[in-house]
Amino acid sequence: xxxxxxxxxxxxWIGGAGSLMTDGEWVWSVDLVYYLSRYHIALPADFLDHVRxxxxxxxxxxxxxxxxxxxxxFPRRPTPWS
Length: 82
Fold this sequence. Notes:
two-stranded antiparallel ribbon, flat
């Protein structure tokens, strides 16, 4: 777990920034809640529809799906020694 400065005002530190959350379909940064509450940023309509359809409940994401998502976001790059 890390912390990063507020990217807009630079006046506060946000704990957990850089960590990712997922519901198995969408992926977002942990600091999204901070920006929503402080700056009232707009979220994509597709995401809001998805949240409403799921009854505002995030499902438990199976470990294999989490690994799949991380592999999509951060593909392994070959190294000279691999």
